[in-house]
Design brief:
about 290 residues; mainly alpha
């Protein structure tokens, strides 16, 4: 990865972990992210108007782009639903690192769908990232096998977090090919539009709480998370225009360090020794990914 790409992804990772921290602390329902995606549409309009962006930017886009927008919106909606459900039953320092384990799946999609090939150092780095994330997920960590190592795992939370990671890996590869067709800012606006539609469809079938109630109780948090989420996403899309998606998604897992630390320090979550061990291994992997060509 280039130095600019690394910088963009690191800032994105910190920003991403921040909105996840606020989401976990607020214990928000899925309806919260309907408002986030809806405001993600609105906040770009002044920018578009100020620059005199013509509707032709979207109308003249390749047909293939629209399929990517739809598919990415579907998998992003799945990502947010699974992430919210996981946070309702698990710790931030557990759920966030696992939900960032997308490199495990991104390797497969990148090879099969867009023909990317990564170096041996990149492969080792991604493997270490995955190993670190695995250790972070354990209740306790020993060098010797333990019958109780998995006895306290929150299986439902972990499965939801891995489902979020799987969805993230799919839409990341879609995004990589999409930003080659249109500028990342315009693509991000389309994704917010697509995502709000699919989260809205989910809420039609699963009416968990009134949208008006969520807005009245959490409007400040909605606006804060909207800005953080869109900023983090835009930086990643920009990094994808200059770097391989496998490396971008893997290096983005620096957010796992920030998320685990926020959970342990700010939310007073336990198992800090195990999760710091995993974070250290993850960091080595990130360095190797950053040095890979």
């Amino acid at each position: 990865m280039t130095s600019i790409g690394i910088l963009l992804v690191l800032i994105s990772a910190l920003t991403h972990s921040l909105w996840n921290f606020f989401t976990k602390r607020g214990n928000f329902p899925v309806a919260f992210f309907f408002w986030v995606s809806l405001w993600g549409i609105i906040v770009y309009l002044p920018f578009f108007i100020g620059l005199g962006v013509s509707p032709s930017v979207f109308l003249e886009a390749p047909i293939g782009l629209w399929w990517k927008v739809i598919l990415s919106g579907i998998f992003e909606a799945i990502y947010f639903v699974c992430l919210i459900k996981a946070y309702q039953v698990g710790d931030l320092s557990l759920i966030y690192p696992i939900s960032r384990s997308a490199p495990l799946f991104t390797q497969i999609w990148a090879i099969l769908l867009i023909g990317e090939v990564f170096s041996g150092m990149g492969f080792i780095g991604i493997t270490l990232v995955m190993g670190g994330l695995f250790i972070i997920s354990l209740k306790d960590f020993h060098l010797q096998p333990s019958k109780t190592a998995f006895s306290h795992l929150n299986i439902r939370a972990i499965l939801l977090a891995f489902s979020a990671a799987l969805a993230s890996s799919i839409y990341s590869v879609i995004d990589k090919s999409a930003v080659e067709m249109i500028h990342p800012i315009y693509y991000l606006w389309l994704i917010n539009l697509s995502m709000s539609c699919f989260i809205g469809l989910y809420l039609l079938f699963y009416r968990e709480i009134s949208l008006r109630k969520v807005w009245n109780e959490s409007k400040k948090e909605v606006l804060l998370v909207t800005l953080l989420q869109n900023f983090a996403y835009l930086l990643v899309l920009l990094a994808m225009t200059t770097s391989k998606v496998s490396y971008v998604v893997a290096f983005r897992q620096a957010g796992a360090l920030f998320g685990a630390l926020m959970g342990i320090i700010l939310l007073k979550e336990t198992q800090w020794k195990t999760r710091i061990t995993g974070a250290f291994i993850l960091t080595i992997g990130l360095v190797l990914i950053g040095l890979a060509k």
